[in-house]
Amino acid sequence: MSTPSPARWPVAELDPIRRLDVLAAALPGVVVQHTVLDAPFAEVWPFLTDFERSVPSFDSSVRRVVVRSRTDAHVRLTAWSFPGLPGLRFEVDVEPGFCWMRSRWRVYVVGMAAVPDGARTRVAHLEGSALPGARLLRWFVAREVASDVAGMHRILDRQTGGHAGG
Amino acid sequence: MVAARGGDTSAMSALVGALATRLGPVCGAIALDDGDDALQEALIVVLRNLGDLREPAAVVGWARRIAVREAVRVAARRSRSVLVADVGDRPPRAPGLPGGEADVDLGLDVRATLAALAPEHRAVLALRHLEGLSEDEAAEVLRVAPGTVKSRSARAKVAFRRRWTA
């Protein structure tokens, strides 16, 4: 034998959080924030992808979410924000620990990724626009993302009494 | 691929996922414990430069060229900052190898043997034995003469042979 079988060679992996970071690096109009939630992945991920329940609870700018259709890997939903504004339709791709939401015409994209970290969960949350010139709104998007992440902590962290179960 | 190049963020996300699986072995074999970093950095370069790709069907070969370059760069950066002695002492990460204890031992041995080679030599091995490229094709990816690939490949094979006959 001169070299070992390929099955024995080390293999690099791109976990869901790194995948979100790759997309963030390629889209100048988006902002990504990382955090560690004090709750297990088995609790965090089902909650985050229960969009009708989770998004209005951690995102203060979203009043209501309605799922129009759902399969294991794809969700169509509409999100309403401020009174008077029409609902924004999103197509959502969902994989274990990773989801990518895009509205029509690239107006807005949202990404969430989660990776187990012992009894806790590392989470990355991304929002922004893929439209040209969207980088000018990054300051606003950064505020939204920070608010959402704070909301996730409020709801999911055990130490603050928050829990997603029930 | 065409949709991703046109700015479809869902297509970009899917492309990143697919290329991560495709390029994970080559990044892991070259950058070893820094393989995940190398893979992430390679995919950022790929996404940022999608517009430069003239022939969408050639995306895998083009992305592989980028991945090899990034993996060698990341590995070289690491080897400048870590003493060679530390490489052998570093606890290996779980390789997820099939089979029993012997397989694990062999997997760790592969990693240790690769770690003793220069990143450029690991790149030759990865391209020839993981990717199945000819000497000429590997030389083109690495931008070196075919003779250089041949000599590096021979040296790397000797290193493996010594390891298993020692």
- The CATH architecture name of the largest domain in chain B reads Orthogonal Bundle
- Total count of domains of chain B: 2
> Unreliable segments of chain B (pLDDT under 50, ≥5 consecutive)?
83-104
What's the alpha carbon Rg of chain B, rounded to whole Å? 17 Å
Q: State the name of the first-level CATH class of chain A.
A: Alpha Beta
Query: Helicity level of chain A, as a percent range?
Result: 25-40%
Overall pLDDT metric of chain B: 81
Q: Write down the domain tally of chain A.
A: 1
Helix-and-strand structural type of chain A: alpha+beta
Find the CATH superfamily of the largest domain in chain B.
RNA polymerase sigma factor, region 2, helix turn helix motif
Helix and strand run of chain B: HHHHHHHHH
Give me the number of helical elements of chain B: 9
Shape estimate of chain A:
globular
Order of strands in the sheet with most strands of chain A: 1-7-6-5-4-3-2
Count interface residues per chain for the largest interface.
A-B, 31 and 46 residues
- The CATH homologous superfamily of chain A corresponds to START domain
- How are helices and strands ordered from N to C of chain A? HEHHEEEEEEH
Proportion of beta-strand residues of chain B = under 5%
Residue share in helix of chain B? over 70%
Structure description:
The complex is a heterodimer of chains A (166) and B (166). Chain A is α+β, with helices and mostly antiparallel strands. Chain A has a single domain (13-156), classed as Alpha-D-Glucose-1,6-Bisphosphate, Chain A, domain 4 (2-Layer Sandwich), CATH 3.30.530.20. Chain A is 28% helix and 33% strand. Chain A is built from four helices and seven strands; from the N terminus they run H-E-H-H-E-E-E-E-E-E-H. Chain A has helices spanning 16-26, 41-48, 51-58, 138-156; strands spanning 30-37, 64-70, 74-80, 88-95, 98-103, 109-117, 120-128. Chain A has a seven-stranded antiparallel sheet, sandwiched between helices. In chain A, a hairpin with a 5-residue loop joins strand 5 and strand 6. The mean pLDDT of chain A is 90. Chain B has 166 residues and is mainly α. Chain B folds into two domains: 1-81, RNA polymerase sigma factor, region 2, helix turn helix motif (Rna Polymerase Sigma Factor, Chain: A), CATH 1.10.1740.10; 117-166, Arc Repressor Mutant, subunit A (Orthogonal Bundle). Chain B is 75% helix and 0% strand. Chain B contains nine helices and no strands. The radius of gyration of chain B is 17 Å and the shape is globular. Chain B starts with a helix and ends with a helix. The model of chain B is unreliable at 83-104 (pLDDT under 50). Chains A and B meet through helix 1 and strand 4 of A and helix 2, helix 3, helix 6, helix 7 and helix 9 of B.
